[in-house]
Design brief:
- The structure holds two protein chains of two kinds.
- Chain A is α/β, with parallel strands linked by helices.
- Chain A is 37% helix and 25% strand.
- Chain B is mainly alpha-helical.
- Chain B is elongated.
- Classes of the chains: A alpha/beta, B mainly alpha.
- Chains A and B meet through helix 2, strand 6, helix 3 and helix 5 of A and helix 5 and helix 6 of B.
């Protein structure tokens, strides 16, 4: 059974259909990179997966839990799905450590000491062991995003969603965030990454999905996807971004 | 000169009463503001409209009329209150309506990304509000709350008209005894209100600059 299975997913904001019949399957341990022009519905897919946005039709099943089943509680779904945002969205009134321990303490019910141990280990993993007591305002964008990754990992998620995790960063510091994401991929974390980083997709993805105007135009492993794109729309997009 | 000096202790007591009124009303207004403002920030439109109606009603009526209603009107329903309690209640409701706007405004000014990030961790609505949104919103509430306190101190002088012995009423009683001191006494009262309120509004402006 795949880790994530989306079938026939539809979503409209008012008259604007942003997702039209989306079918997407992601296997355990795979990295799925979603690329495409802005406004194509890439981010909306991620937000539907953890119920930040309710879908209008179709089904999403994640690790056996149905996103559309009202009997499945938000918390049971969301503790299994970590999310990293373009704008980091760290809590500015908390230190890095407090950002990372909030979920484990308040949602998973961990004791402060256990949550602190977990936070220290994760901050070390993203290379920020010495920044545990820093506030977000004292950290660079790349450092903030790495704290945000640690915060999401602290819940022990089955799937990690990355919503343009490097788009708000200066080009010279996207590397430090991409390195952390590569490391997670090497550890067989199931990841769905909406990204503009073609190099990352080529190197790390198990599958590359190209979206345009609310539909999945083409989906293939990176070798085939970048080497021999099938659809005209894909070719024209790649010719502009590569 | 003599009756001016004699008046001073009663003016000081009156100022004390003014502070009592203002502090009690402020405490109630903040509590009221938090309840109403938080509710309004979360309420769906159908529930928000009646709440908005309440807030607009109490913002739209003159404070003095509210005091008269509470002090002279309600006793006919058997709800007899002391002068001070009626004054505090009127000030509290009036300022509470303004406080609820301050609280609601501060809450909705926190970027949606904060709520989303907290929701993505699995936190529920109330936990998000309590742990993530309100701690950040408090900073934005502080300057307008301080300014609101200055407004309450000023407005509390209306309580003299329902016979609360606040600073203004203490001054009036002295002037009634000796009309010759009207000028120095009322000048003193003017200066006293200014001396109390000016540092408060300065503090509010300072906080505004520091926290935003």
């Amino acid at each position: 059974m795949p880790m994530l299975e989306m079938s026939g997913v539809r979503k409209a904001f008012g008259q604007n259909e942003v997702l039209k019949d989306i079918n997407l399957s992601v296997e355990r341990g795979d990295v799925c990179c979603i690329i495409g022009p802005s406004g194509s519905g890439k981010s909306t897919i991620l937000r539907c997966i953890n119920r930040l946005v309710p879908i209008d039709g179709g089904t999403i099943v994640i690790d056996g839990l149905s996103v559309t089943d009202p009997a499945v509680r938000d918390v049971d779904l969301r503790r299994r799905v970590g999310m990293v945002f373009q704008q980091f969205n760290l809590f500015p009134h908390m230190t890095a450590r407090e950002n990372v321990t909030l979920g484990p303490r308040k949602v998973l019910g961990l004791a402060q000491a256990d949550a602190d141990d977990r936070a220290r280990a994760l901050l070390a993993k993203v290379g920020l062991a010495d920044k545990a007591e820093s506030r977000p305002s004292q950290l660079s964008g790349g450092q903030q995003q790495r704290v945000a990754i640690a915060r999401a990992l602290a819940m022990g998620p089955k799937v990690m969603l990355f919503d343009e995790a490097t788009s708000a960063l200066d080009p010279e510091i996207t590397g430090e965030v991409l390195a952390v994401m590569k490391q997670l991929a090497l550890e067989h974390t199931t990841m769905i990454c909406v990204t503009h980083e073609m190099g990352f997709a080529r190197e790390v993805a198990s599958n590359v999905v190209f979206m345009d105007a609310g539909v999945i135009v083409e989906s293939n492993p990176p070798g085939a996807f970048f080497g021999a794109p099938q659809m005209e729309r894909t070719k024209s997009f790649l010719s502009k971004v590569l | 000169m003599h009756s001016y000096l004699v008046a001073i202790p009663s003016l000081v007591r009156g100022l004390g009463t003014t502070f009592e009124l203002a502090i009690a009303a402020m405490a109630c207004a903040v509590a009221l503001g938090f309840v109403l403002g938080t509710l309004r920030s979360m309420a769906p439109r159908a529930l928000d409209l009646p709440l908005l109606g309440i807030v607009e009603f109490f913002r739209g009526i003159p404070l003095l009329v509210l005091m008269y209603f509470l002090f002279f009107g309600l006793p006919q329903l058997g709800l007899r209150t002391s002068n001070n309690a009626a004054a505090i209640a009127a000030l509290a409701v009036y300022a509470g309506a303004l406080a609820s706007e301050i609280v609601r405004g501060a809450i909705v000014s926190i970027p949606l990304g904060q709520t989303e990030a907290a929701a993505a961790l699995g936190l529920g609505r109330f936990a998000i509000l309590r742990l993530v949104v309100i701690p950040q919103a408090l900073r934005r509430m502080l300057p307008p709350f301080v300014a609101l306190f200055a407004l309450i101190v000023e407005s509390s002088s209306l309580a003299a008209l329902i016979d609360v012995t606040d600073l203004l009423q203490a001054a009036r009683q002295n002037v009634e005894r000796d009309p010759d001191v009207a000028l120095p006494i009322y000048l003193t009262v003017l200066v006293a209100y200014f001396v109390v309120n000016y540092p408060i509004s300065l503090a509010s402006q300072r906080l505004e600059k520091r926290l935003t």
